[in-house]
Amino acid sequence: IATAGNIAGEALSNKSVVMFDILRASSTISTALANGCKEVIPVIDVEDAFALARQLPEGSFILGGERGAIKVTGFHLGNSPLEYTASVVKDKTVIISTTNGTKAIRYAAGENGRVFIGSLLNCSSVAKALADLSKDIVLVCAGTRGKFSLEDTLAAGLVIKDLLKFFNKNPWQAKTQEHNKFYLEETPIFNNDALILEDAAVAALRLAEYYWQSPIQGLLDSLHGQKLLQLGLAADLDYCSKLNHLTNVPVFFNDKIL
Ligand code: MLT
């Protein structure tokens, strides 16, 4: 597990990387793609988003995103997944710029990496994709302005909970076997029999075990969840808490998410 704030310390190459910003960038991106948009282009700065839009034919794109959870002036849409309906986004390029999520995607991708977009909406599908790839896994929690966030860690934990189904050996047994490797400071290697969990991943798993029957409670307990509630966005919290509502696994590669 990494947070967007400490990603620089992680060796990401040749690993499966997932970015979670469940309130709300990840949820919005997955929803826009599920509703048939052509592609999503995450952009860090608002000015760059406008500049990119100027290069595209009128009517072929939607500019979306937020600052402080409020729609950016001049954008078509804010960052509510509920705005990205099929009638609005079908066949369009969605250019999106958000406070934490789009940054986290770009940082996690580095020069030309591949990043999966994870949320509560697609936990099971993400877990399946990770199991199929058989690589070491880094779950990047976007957090809020560089700080730990409960809701992203919950989603990461739910993916881990699902991933465990794909392995035979119990992780604690495997952990003991990996103990020496860890103390010799070797990078843990993917083992087809066992999912070896770092302590941060165990903590995320335990969080998931606490909230899995009521993920909305996790969102309500979070700082950003409370902020969205104050802004009258309870419907967004409800939607973003729908576990496995979608089956798509968006992937960022080569500047776009498909
Ligand atoms: C972000 O990227 O910071 C979030 O998605 C903020 C939000 O809730 O709109």
From TrEMBL:
Enzyme Commission designation: 3.1.3.71
Looking up Gene3D superfamilies in the UniProt record yields: ComB-like (3.90.1560.10)
- Keywords on record: Hydrolase, Magnesium
Listed cofactors? Mg(2+)
Q: Where is the signal peptide?
A: none
List the catalysed reactions.
Answer: (2R)-O-phospho-3-sulfolactate + H2O = (2R)-3-sulfolactate + phosphate
Q: Which domain of life is it from?
A: Bacteria
A single Gene Ontology MF term assigned here is: 2-phosphosulfolactate phosphatase activity
**Family recorded in the similarity comment:** Belongs to the ComB family.
What's this protein's name? Probable 2-phosphosulfolactate phosphatase
Native source species: Desulforamulus aquiferis
